[in-house]
Design brief:
The chain has about 450 residues and is of the alpha/beta class. The chain has two domains: about 200 residues, Glycogen Phosphorylase B (Rossmann fold, 3-Layer(aba) Sandwich); about 160 residues, Glycogen Phosphorylase B (Rossmann fold, 3-Layer(aba) Sandwich), CATH 3.40.50. Helices cover about 50% and strands about 15% of the residues. The strands form two sheets. The protein has an eight-stranded mixed beta sheet with strand order 4-3-2-1-5-6-7-8, sandwiched between helices. A six-stranded parallel beta sheet has the order 11-10-9-12-13-14, sandwiched between helices. Strand 5, helix 5 and strand 6 form a beta-alpha-beta unit.
Length: about 450
C-alpha cells in the first residue's frame, strides 16, 4: 500500500469514526422471548449496533407473558392477538404510545421489520415526526397463503393480492432492504422501488468450526437440519429420500433441531415412511451455544426449504464447517455453490435430494474449506457496516425533512406571528389615532380661544 492509499484509508476510517451515533427504533411483529429467524436477525443486529455506540429501542407485538419474560427497558410490547394457524406468532392490535416513545428518546431513524400492524405504525410515526423509515422484507409472506386456505386457486389470488400490498407498503418506505440478490430481483419485478441488498449477519465468534481437540462421534454420519418445522421448509423430501441415502451411506442418521406447527406432521411422516429409526427430532433449543454444538457435531447440513429470503441456518452451518445440500430454490443458490461448499438439488425430486445428500457426504472434506469461507463472509461486523452505510445514506437524503407535527407546529407558529404582528399594528394604529385625536382636540381648543 503506497502513501496515498494509506492516507485515503485513514481518511475513510476517520469519517466512519466521526459519524453521528444513531438512535434507532426497530418495529417488529416478533421478538424475544420468541425464537425464529427474524428474532435472531434482530438480536444480532441490535447487539452489533450497540457494541459500537448506537442506541436501539424495540417496539413489538406481544403479551403479558412477553413482558414478564423480557424486562429489557428498551423493549416495548403492544397488545396483540395470536395468529391462529401459527400460535407462535402474534399480530398487534393496538400501538398507541409508539410515537411518544420515539419523541421521548429523540429517535433519528425508524427501521421496520414488519409489514403488519407494527409496520404500519412505523410508517405513521415516520410521517408524523418527519423521521426516515427503512423497511426490511424478512419473510416470503406471499408464499405462505396455505396458512389461510388449502384451495390452490384461492392461494394464487391471495398471492397476487399480497404482492400488491407489499408494493403499497414498501414503496412508502424511504428504502427497502432485502437479505439476498434473488429477493431483490423478485421485489423489483413486482414493483417495489429503491431496494438495497444487506444480508443478515451471524456471530462468527460463536458460529465456527469445532476446535482441533474436539473429536466427532465415530461410527455414525450425521445429517443436520436446524430451523422452524413448518410445511414450507419442505422436510418431506428429506424424509422420503432418507431410505435411499441409508442404502448408500452406512450408519446414517438425521437430526432435526427446531419446533413449529408441522413438527407432529413430520414425525408421523417419518413413521409412515418406515424411517423413524433414522430420525431424531430434538425440538426447540433457545441457547445459541447449544445450537452451535449440534452444528459442530454434524457432518453435513441439509436445507430443503422453498421459503428462504436468505437462509440463515445454512450460513451458520457453513461457518461451523458444514457443507450444505440445499434446495435449488429462491435465496439458497445465492450462497450454496456446487463443488465449492455443497450441492443443490431439485426440492421436489426425492431421488435428486438423496443423490445430492450422498454426494455432499462423500465430498465433505474438500467442500469444508469453501463452506467456512462462505460463512465468514456473512460476519455480523461486515453486515452491520453495510447496514450503517444504508442508514447514513437515507438520513442524508432526508435531511431537513419535516413531519406532519412539525408542519402543524410551523403553521401554528406562523399564525401566532401574524396575530402578534396584527396586534402590534393595531396597537401602533391606536396610539397614532390617539395622538392624532389629542392633536386635533388641542387645535380645536386653540381655534376657540381665537
Amino acid at each position: 500500500m503506497n502513501g496515498d492509499q494509506i492516507h485515503k484509508s485513514h481518511d475513510k476510517k476517520q469519517r466512519t469514526q466521526n459519524r453521528k451515533k444513531l438512535r434507532i427504533a426497530f418495529f417488529t411483529e416478533t421478538y424475544l422471548p420468541n425464537i425464529d429467524g427474524v428474532v435472531i436477525a434482530l438480536v444480532t443486529m441490535r447487539k452489533e449496533l450497540e457494541s459500537i455506540g448506537h442506541r436501539i429501542w424495540v417496539l413489538s407485538s406481544g403479551d403479558e407473558k412477553s413482558k414478564k419474560e423480557n424486562k429489557d427497558p428498551k423493549v416495548s410490547y403492544y397488545p396483540s392477538v395470536t395468529f391462529a394457524p401459527y400460535p407462535q406468532y402474534k399480530i398487534a392490535i393496538y400501538t398507541h404510545g409508539a410515537r411518544d416513545i420515539l419523541e421521548k428518546n429523540k429517535i433519528d431513524l425508524i427501521h421496520s421489520h414488519s409489514m403488519g400492524p407494527m409496520g404500519m405504525s412505523a410508517i405513521y410515526c415516520s410521517r408524523m415526526l418527519g423521521k426516515p423509515v427503512i423497511g426490511t422484507l424478512h419473510t416470503n409472506i406471499q408464499d405462505a397463503t396455505h396458512y389461510i386456505t388449502s384451495v390452490k386457486l384461492a392461494q394464487e389470488f391471495m398471492k397476487n393480492t399480497i404482492w400488491k400490498y407489499l408494493n403499497l407498503y414498501y414503496n412508502q418506505c424511504d428504502m427497502t432492504i432485502v437479505p439476498s440478490n434473488t429477493i431483490a430481483k423478485l421485489c423489483r419485478e413486482n414493483g417495489i422501488k429503491n431496494v438495497e441488498v444487506v444480508p443478515t449477519g451471524i456471530d462468527t465468534n460463536n458460529f465456527k468450526p469445532a476446535s482441533r481437540g474436539k473429536v466427532k462421534k465415530k461410527g455414525r454420519t450425521n445429517v443436520l437440519y436446524v430451523g422452524r418445522l413448518v410445511k414450507e421448509k419442505n422436510l418431506d423430501v428429506v424424509i422420503k429420500s432418507s431410505l435411499i441415502v441409508a442404502e448408500k451411506i452406512k450408519n446414517i442418521h438425521f437430526t432435526i433441531v427446531g419446533a413449529g406447527p408441522a413438527k407432529e406432521y413430520y414425525e408421523n411422516l417419518a413413521k409412515q415412511e418406515g424411517v423413524d429409526h433414522l430420525f431424531t427430532f430434538i425440538g426447540l433449543i433457545k441457547q445459541q451455544k447449544e445450537i452451535v454444538k449440534y452444528y459442530q457435531e454434524a457432518d453435513v447440513f441439509v436445507f430443503p426449504s422453498i421459503f428462504e429470503t436468505q437462509g440463515l441456518s445454512g450460513i451458520e452451518a457453513m461457518a461451523c464447517g458444514l457443507p450444505v445440500a440445499g434446495a435449488d430454490y429462491l435465496a439458497i443458490p445465492d450462497f450454496v455453490k456446487d463443488k465449492y461448499n455443497g450441492y443443490l438439488f431439485n426440492p421436489f425430486d426425492v431421488d435428486d435430494c438423496a443423490n445430492k445428500i450422498v454426494k455432499t457426504i462423500n465430498d465433505r472434506a474438500k467442500l469444508r474449506k469453501g463452506a467456512i469461507e462462505t460463512g465468514r463472509r456473512y460476519s455480523s461486523k461486515k453486515c452491520t457496516a453495510e447496514l450503517l452505510n444504508v442508514y447514513y445514506k437515507v438520513l442524508e437524503e432526508n435531511k431537513g425533512k419535516k413531519g406532519i407535527i412539525a408542519e402543524l407546529t410551523s403553521v401554528r407558529e406562523k399564525v401566532e406571528i401574524v396575530q402578534k404582528m396584527q396586534k402590534r399594528i393595531e396597537n401602533a394604529g391606536n396610539k397614532m389615532l390617539t395622538k392624532l385625536n389629542k392633536d386635533y382636540l388641542k387645535r380645536i381648543q386653540i381655534l376657540r380661544k381665537i
